[in-house]
Design a protein that fits this description.
Elements (H helix, E strand, L loop, with lengths): L2 H16 L42 E9 L2 E9 L5 E8 L8 H15 L3 E3 L7 H9 L14 H7 L13 H11 L1
């Protein structure tokens, strides 16, 4: 499986999830569609879901990797078969063990195991959840497109209790604007 195959599968599934066409993701202009779930929409849209595992939909949880400190489980990444060709990764690390690279190590390892099983790994995060976005980038994921929703400011503030600064390796808005101007 090559990147083009992975992108095609991901675009097809995301289109199914929100009610648009896969080719809409390739357009240079914004595309607005009324939200509706397709018949093969990812199952996590049917509530509830959590990061690594979920008791209420455990039949979808198919694979996991853990990090231990001795006998104590300190980090867990799990994936769920939310649709036929793509498995979603979720990760949790105990608070005392965060900022040590555990989340990205678990996420990267699980992504490789998913690919070895012939599936496409994917990682979703709200853009306002900076810690999660950083983990995705550090683990080798790149944004393919964005689905935007609005959250109340108190929820965003709670997700970002610490100031983590800009995301390393991502272009600044200035660079993006300069690229757009150079394209004409």
């Amino acid at each position: 499986m090559i990147n083009k195959d992975i992108l095609g599968i991901a675009m097809k599934q995301s289109a199914e999830d929100i009610g648009c066409k896969a080719e809409d993701f390739l357009k240079s202009e914004n595309v607005t569609v009324p939200f509706h779930l397709g018949k093969n929409a990812r199952k996590y849209y049917k509530e509830p879901w959590s990061n690594a595992l979920c008791e209420d939909r455990k039949e979808l949880d198919v694979l996991g990797v853990g990090a231990y400190d001795g006998d104590k489980l300190v980090g867990l990444a799990g994936c769920s078969a939310d649709c036929e060709d793509m498995w979603q990764i979720g990760v949790d690390v105990l608070p005392d063990y965060r900022r040590r690279g555990i989340a990205s190590g678990l996420t990267s390892r699980l992504a490789k195991e998913i690919i070895n099983r012939g599936k496409v790994p994917f990682y979703c995060s709200a853009w306002s959840n900076i810690r999660s976005v950083r983990n995705a980038v550090k683990s080798g994921f790149i944004p393919a497109w964005v689905e935007m929703t609005a959250k109340p400011s108190h929820i965003v503030d709670d997700m970002n209790k610490t100031d983590v600064g800009p995301i390393a390796g991502w272009p600044s808005h200035q660079n993006i604007d300069e690229r757009r101007k150079s394209r004409g």
